[in-house]
Amino acid sequence: MEKYHLPDDISAMYITASSFPDGVLAAHQKMHSLVPREDSPERKYFGISFPIDGTIVYKAAAEELIKGEAAQLGLKTYLIKKGEYISIDIHEFMKNISAIGDAFNELLENPRIDPNGACVEWYMNDSDLKCLVRLAD
User: Fold this and answer.
1) What is the spatial distance between Cα 12 and Cα 92, in angstroms, rounded to a whole number?
2) pTM of the full predicted structure?
3) Number of domain units in the chain
4) pLDDT 10s digit of each residue in the chain, 137 long?
5) Which residues touch 67 (CB under 8 Å, ≥6 apart)?
6) The domain that contains 118 carries what CATH number?
7) 81 is in which domain, residue-wise?
């Protein structure tokens, strides 16, 4: 586990998965069909999850590069807040999907996490991701 400083807020446009975990892959596939990685290699891709009434809500998300881009695509945005995070990197995550849940279970044990934050998966490329949880200010 290491600390990670996110220097700026990130506006992320998203598609909410129909369910968790079953609808996650379809939500990511739909997001990538709307904004393919090849069209903007600098764009960041995320998975954002948090509990609501005992159910995990999952959003497949992509960085909004141009203000208003989400609205043009008919999508809403979620603000990933700048600040201090704790993180765990997972290499070749597709070979061990359960490692993602294990990483978040470990991160969520930290007593300093932001109670209004979310679990953020930052897909660095097609095989590596960074699991992030924001710390309270």
Assistant:
1) 24
2) 0.93
3) 1
4) 899 999 999 999 999 999 999 999 999 999 999 998 888 889 999 999 998 988 999 999 999 999 999 999 999 999 999 999 999 999 999 898 899 999 999 999 999 999 889 999 999 998 999 999 999 98
5) 11
6) 3.20.80.10
7) 2-134
